[in-house]
Amino acid sequence: TKTETPQSSGGDVRLHGISKTYGSFTAVQPLDLTVPAGSFFALLGASGCGKTTTLRMIAGLEEPTTGTVELSGRDVTALPPYKRQVNTVFQNYALFPHLDIYENVAFGLRRRGIKSVKKQVEEMLDLVQLGPMARRKPQQLSGGQQQRVAVARALINHPQVLLLDEPLGALDLKLRRQMQLELKRIQTEVGITFVHVTHDQEEAMTMADTVAVMNGGRVEQLGAPADLYENPGTTFVANFLGTSNLIEAEVVEAGGEELLLRAADTTLHLPAARCSASARKGEKVLAGVRPEKVALTHADDADGIAAEHNRLPGRIKDASFIGVSTQYVVEVPGLGELAVYEQNIERDGRLVPGAGIVLHWSRAHTFGLDATQD
Ligand code: ATP
């Protein structure tokens, strides 16, 4: 007997010039941000970048210094948390230890004076797949199960927006990965807008439709996970989302669809559309490429490398076999060390430390960044 999933409609969130200062310290710089209705949105950044403060301003737990918060077209800046159609799930679950799971989930309904809660509570317990545990106390559940109760409890009043503040932070890595998929499934099923705060780039990329990368109280870049990864606009984003090779280069030819760069003694090609720097002739840029986009060919076989590939000569410094791939550190004269991740398909036995090799990758996988930013 499968009950129907409780459907709610998600609301959109619009932040207009919202900021927060504590004394002379600016935690969040004036920020404009739109979270589309029904989306899974992640605020991603290192500790102290202002993501929790931003979330708390949406919740109404923190009063903005400037700016307004709009929920589904309504200015809620002056409303207390309980008058906003939002609910928050915190890292520490905050379940009532003396109530069983059923009553924890029913709490929001009972507080509103609703008597017949059975159907809704059962639907919610089904949604988070905890029906059989309804009569247990929170301390009889695992961390992941407790977090699912916290989600069910937060969803029972059908908020338009669910805010999640590092909800998986207390879980070990394996459970964390499971819960990421679980939360994603729940969000897709209920259709409520989720705004999720995390410092874990893999978590944000796995779960969210849109990720806002925050740094120093500002949104540094916003986009779909794959887009941010493939087209980072700043060195901060390039380095925060995975490993990147950033090669110092000078623009020797500009104006066409492709920029020509000089890096040490080598010419590199960069699609102009993938360069976020101004990149006039004579200017410095950083040419970036992700380690898994780069291939290694033994120097003796360099003639076979595709003509449209960027290439750099180097020497293998280190090779670590990690199962799915081998991770190489390659020393490139004049440019330092670059990382290469190669899948272990037909490994070339000559690719060992000390070997002379050529690194190469499709020009299309090259991105260009401003070399003057910090
Ligand atoms: P974390 O992941 O560590 O929680 P965060 O990105 O969520 O980091 P915030 O909690 O938003 O960061 O804090 C942003 C900055 O504002 C931090 O430097 C923090 O010390 C500061 N801050 C937060 N709350 C206050 C407060 N009540 N008074 C003074 N400074 C504060």
From TrEMBL:
EC number: 7.6.2.11
SUPFAM superfamilies in UniProt: MOP-like, P-loop containing nucleoside triphosphate hydrolases
Coiled-coil features, chain-numbered ranges: none
Catalytic activity: ATP + H2O + polyamine-[polyamine-binding protein]Side 1 = ADP + phosphate + polyamineSide 2 + [polyamine-binding protein]Side 1
ABC transporter domain: residues covered: 13-241
Keyword RNA-binding: no
PROSITE patterns: ABC_TRANSPORTER_1, ABC_TRANSPORTER_2
Cited Pfam families: ABC_tran, TOBE_2
Keywords in alphabetical order: ATP-binding, Cell membrane, Membrane, Nucleotide-binding, Translocase, Transport
InterPro entries: AAA+_ATPase, ABC_SmlMolc_Importer, ABC_transporter-like_ATP-bd, ABC_transporter-like_CS, Mo/tungstate-bd_C_term_dom, P-loop_NTPase, PotA-like, PotA_ATP-bd
Top-level enzyme category: translocase
Function of the molecule: Part of the ABC transporter complex PotABCD involved in spermidine/putrescine import. Responsible for energy coupling to the transport system.
Family membership noted in the UniProt record: Belongs to the ABC transporter superfamily. Spermidine/putrescine importer (TC 3.A.1.11.1) family.
Assembly mode: The complex is composed of two ATP-binding proteins (PotA), two transmembrane proteins (PotB and PotC) and a solute-binding protein (PotD).
NCBIfam families: potA
Protein name per the record: Spermidine/putrescine import ATP-binding protein PotA
Gene: potA
